[in-house]
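Chapter review: from sequence to fold.
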Amino acid sequence: MKKLLQILSVLLIIATTAFGQQRTITGTVTNKEDGTPVPGVSVKVAGTKVSTQTGPDGKFTITGVAGQTLQLTSLGFTAQTITLGTSNVVRVQLATESNALTEVIVVAYGTTTKGAFTGAASKVGADDIKDRPVTNLNSALSGAAPGVQVNAGSGQPGAGPSVRIRGFGSYSASNDPLYIVDGIQYPGSIANINVDDIESISILKDAASSALYGSSAANGVVLVTTKKGKQGKETLSVRALQGITSRGISE
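The token string follows.
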């Protein structure tokens, strides 16, 4: 009996050591729908700085300990987590994120979904800006869409930030994009539009997306859709902003 307990103790120590030992994990990430490899997937060990990416063949190599969690994320796919076991090989299937493909965006000729649209466009919805302390449309675009640069204004009263889509297109002419509000070209200052009245903003970046507007859209197009009345129960929303300004140098 004593000998049996000794053997069990040794086996328990070996199992515990193996369970907590750093190992090299190899894995393959494939598309759940068609089984094709998914490149560029970010693979990270939760709670650590250890991370890697899948190659063109969907394979990756990472070090970890049994019991740790791997976090796998990729644009257009639903994020997934797996717990490492005793095996050194893992296989993961990522499901396509349907919301990213069915999201409706406004384009030059009407509306379409991201899955069907082949041009370069970004969408900023009302939910993306409602919790941000912005006072004009240009500020709402800051950091909200890739390829869109928002520069600080001149400081003149009523002047808002300037927007540049994919850099500067001209040295001497205007670099401002074309603003379309509810299907009509907006001739006034875009800073006068109340951000609380905006339903969505679509930014058309390439020539194919903005071809309908001709040379006026050489610097890109910003399509603004304002909120409209909807059928249903009446709702009332209130939004208040406050701030404090203090002198940098006391008198």
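Two observations follow directly from the output. Residues 105-226 form a domain with the Ferric Hydroxamate Uptake Protein; Chain A, domain 1 fold (CATH 2.170.130.10). The first helix runs from residue 2 to 19.
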